[in-house]
């Protein structure tokens, strides 16, 4: 029998085994700080943030306290704290209270201008953001205007729960959980979030015991959140008792 290969015909090769699908690499978690007490009251907390830039994605600046906002005049203590964070490479977000969609548009934009002029913020954290489909265009108008005021501004919509899916296109990140550890342990994630990368979602959980910190981080990864804030306190204003531990855990992920 003639050798077919000698005549120039290609030799037959066994079929290759199909390649296994690539395993998606989940980005490391980072911290999104909902906002500590005024820097004059909590200087330690603000100072620690500037010393952990690799672990902190952003921190919220709330100058006026209850109700949020930049205040009626520049605050030198907040100016100093914000400047230190920005110099360290941490985004500073001005807090704007949407009051579940009832806040007048003009008031929000006036406050945004003050944040930009006085504190040079890197973006905005829209507190008490509505979740309904009917208010999506109202929120989209606000976020689009903020982006026009400050090109490249990082916009976070703080719903605290899963909103109508269209909100995912109106901002850089959504806070889809804000609440207690008891609720977080048994929480469910909306199916539509799987269509977006983990970098788009934020989880904020209070009352997390130190012994359950690793479990909380696993839940965040399982639910597809890329930015988190866990604390053993009952509010956001004070630094968690295990701050060094959580920064160390997240810092190791970043360095890897």
TrEMBL record:
<feature type="region of interest" description="Disordered">
    <location>
        <begin position="1"/>
        <end position="23"/>
    </location>
</feature>
<feature type="compositionally biased region" description="Low complexity">
    <location>
        <begin position="1"/>
        <end position="11"/>
    </location>
</feature>
<protein>
    <submittedName>
        <fullName>Spherulation-specific family 4 protein</fullName>
    </submittedName>
</protein>
<feature type="compositionally biased region" description="Pro residues">
    <location>
        <begin position="12"/>
        <end position="23"/>
    </location>
</feature>
<dbReference type="InterPro" id="IPR021986">
    <property type="entry name" value="Spherulin4"/>
</dbReference>
<dbReference type="Pfam" id="PF12138">
    <property type="entry name" value="Spherulin4"/>
</dbReference>
